[in-house]
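Q: Joint fold for the lines below.
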Amino acid sequence: MRPLVPWILAAFSAPAWAAMPAAEQNALVKQYCAVCHTDAAKNGGLSLQHYDAGSRDPGLAAMILSKLNNGAMGAAGNGVPAKTAQVAWLESTKEQAAGAEEWFVSRQSETVSAGIVRAVPPRKPDSADAPLYRLLLVCNPGTRVGEMQLTWSPQPQTGRTLTASIDGNPALSYTIEGKESMGNGTSLESGHASVILNSDKSKQLGLPKQSLTVRDLFPGETVEFPFDGLGKDARAELSKCF
Ligand code: HEC
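A: Joint structure:
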């Protein structure tokens, strides 16, 4: 007879990402990432200070995976995790990133967030790593204050002007310039990996019905975020801010 009961138990008790428990991932993020990705420094427009691998966020996981695959493990200058831990961390993050190309909506006490990721073709022909862009909308429907953030990985950028347009309307321009200092206090500097698309009154794209298109952050590159797949409830909430 097939050992049905143990099989069922295994199926139900195994965590969704079995390679490395969330607590271990959190400890690694704290040691190797959150030294710069603090609430205060927010390198790359990202805080990982309160990161919890146990709470689902495929888009964030996809961005983390991209950085893990491109040298971020050693960025803190404290060495890197043991090989087995690296493999398990990558494996778990990969599982968590599944579905990142669809809208992921989450609600905290007062805010609603909606994020989506798009991959574009490799910038160098011999590179296997597809560059990623993430669009993240965060809105407090009560105060009507919201933020539309674009982030990218793995390469930072500076000294370029990108354009963004919604639903085929005229585009707005955003200049990415200057360098950011490392949140862990080292003297290194890098380009940027994020921009706020609704930073001031002259820069209001509105909430797209069909799509948001970003061009030329990297020469000749276009990325389109589809909005037709955004759920009705999330759209209604987000429309209070955008
Ligand atoms: C020494 C400081 C430092 C450390 C340590 C560091 N980062 Fe970063 N990170 C940055 C800076 C600066 C940027 C923006 C420029 C760039 O992309 O290089 C960035 C950008 C990013 C981005 C892209 C932007 C975004 O918001 O999606 C991600 C993802 C990211 N880091 C994840 C990580 C992860 C995961 C780790 C740990 C394995 C890590 N970082 C460790 C400084 C750091």
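Q: Anything notable?
A: The chain has two domains: 17-96, 104-238. The CA atoms of residues 137 and 191 lie 23 Å apart.
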